[in-house]
UniProtKB/TrEMBL annotation:
<feature type="domain" description="Kinesin motor">
    <location>
        <begin position="1"/>
        <end position="28"/>
    </location>
</feature>
<dbReference type="GO" id="GO:0003777">
    <property type="term" value="F:microtubule motor activity"/>
</dbReference>
<feature type="coiled-coil region">
    <location>
        <begin position="62"/>
        <end position="110"/>
    </location>
</feature>
<feature type="coiled-coil region">
    <location>
        <begin position="216"/>
        <end position="250"/>
    </location>
</feature>
<feature type="region of interest" description="Disordered">
    <location>
        <begin position="277"/>
        <end position="304"/>
    </location>
</feature>
<dbReference type="GO" id="GO:0008017">
    <property type="term" value="F:microtubule binding"/>
</dbReference>
<dbReference type="GO" id="GO:0005524">
    <property type="term" value="F:ATP binding"/>
</dbReference>
<dbReference type="GO" id="GO:0007018">
    <property type="term" value="P:microtubule-based movement"/>
</dbReference>
<protein>
    <recommendedName>
        <fullName>Kinesin motor domain-containing protein</fullName>
    </recommendedName>
</protein>
<dbReference type="InterPro" id="IPR001752">
    <property type="entry name" value="Kinesin_motor_dom"/>
</dbReference>
<comment type="similarity">
    <text>Belongs to the TRAFAC class myosin-kinesin ATPase superfamily. Kinesin family.</text>
</comment>
<feature type="compositionally biased region" description="Basic and acidic residues">
    <location>
        <begin position="277"/>
        <end position="295"/>
    </location>
</feature>
<keyword id="KW-0175">Coiled coil</keyword>
<feature type="coiled-coil region">
    <location>
        <begin position="141"/>
        <end position="170"/>
    </location>
</feature>
């Protein structure tokens, strides 16, 4: 009878029965052929090592998942704090923007009042200039008329001088006319002086247009500077709003409906992973115990 023994656990009963029957068969030659002890021991050691490595890998995976969960929670808290800080900054910037808008509205009203005042002043100056121009035209006409009278008087004076030798009365009349003309000349000079003063004043007032243009340029430069400052503030507010939107999008990504489910799945998997770790450890301990028992049986069988 030839009996073949197997080191597998499931063949333990068959191996034991084979050995029992072989020991009872007194008339038969019993030849037990055992596997090499070193091969059996190495196989069991390798199996135990694989089970230990599997347990170590599961432990490392569990630690990695725990670290990932802790990191995600820290990131979410940091994003929440950053969002609160950005929200506070955005509120401050919005308040600044409202203040700038109010200042801008006040500046626009002030510019409007200034424009109305200067328009009224320019209208008054234009009216005064038109009146002065008309008066000057009238005075010029009067001056032309007086000049013509003067020329006529001079002509008559010349004629009178030519007729001096003709008649004494004509000479006296001519002298009287000359005196009248001289008196009119003085009155004409007296009337001309205030007219020229008014003309000079009008000439000076004519520079008001240039002054108004310079003032308008100054107001425009101030408005452009204010507009630039307003655009800068708006740009800062837009940048902060974009940054806040990015933070909120990240937070929303973390707060998506599937994210808590994933966290719950991880939390639910933790007990199963622990159970699997315990099962692997128990299997490893059982394998070690079975290995020791198998060694003992093999040693006992070898002694027999």
């Amino acid at each position: 009878m030839v009996a073949t023994l197997s080191p597998l656990v499931k063949n333990y009963a068959d191996n034991l029965a084979t050995l029992q029957w072989s020991s009872k068969a007194r008339n038969l030659v019993t030849l037990v052929k055992m596997n090499d002890q070193a091969v059996v021991q190495d196989g069991m050691t390798q199996h135990a090592g694989e089970l230990g490595n599997a347990a170590q890998i599961q432990r490392q995976n569990l630690d990695s998942l725990r670290d990932t969960l802790r990191y995600k929670q820290q990131e979410a808290e940091r994003y929440e704090r950053e969002a609160l800080r950005i929200g506070s900054t955005l509120a401050t910037e919005r308040e600044r923007l409202r203040k700038v808008e109010r200042d801008r509205a006040a500046l626009i009203l002030q510019r409007l009042f200034r424009r109305l005042r200067h328009a009224k002043r320019l209208a008054t100056l234009e009216k005064t200039r038109e009146q002065a121009r008309r008066a000057l035209i009238g005075n010029d006409a009067e001056l032309v008329r007086l000049e013509k009278q003067k020329e006529e008087a001079l002509r008559k004076e010349a004629e009178t001088k030519k007729r001096l030798a003709a008649a004494e009365r004509q000479t006296v009349d001519a002298l009287v006319k000359v005196g009248v003309i001289d008196s009119q000349r003085g009155a004409l000079e007296e009337r001309k002086a205030p007219i020229m003063a008014v003309y000079a004043e009008v000439r000076e007032r004519m520079h008001a247009d240039e002054i108004c243009r310079e003032y308008a340029d100054t107001v425009k430069k101030e408005a452009d500077a204010t507009k630039g400052a307003l655009e800068k503030v708006k740009k800062e507010v837009d940048d902060n709003a974009a940054k806040l939107k990015t933070m909120r999008d990240t937070i929303e990504l973390v707060k998506k409906p599937d994210w808590p489910e994933r966290l719950k799945e991880i939390e639910l998997d933790l007990p199963s992973l622990r159970a699997r770790h315990s099962d692997v450890k128990q299997k490893r301990d059982a394998a070690v115990a079975e290995r020791d028992a198998l060694r003992a049986r093999h040693a006992k069988t070898f002694r027999k």
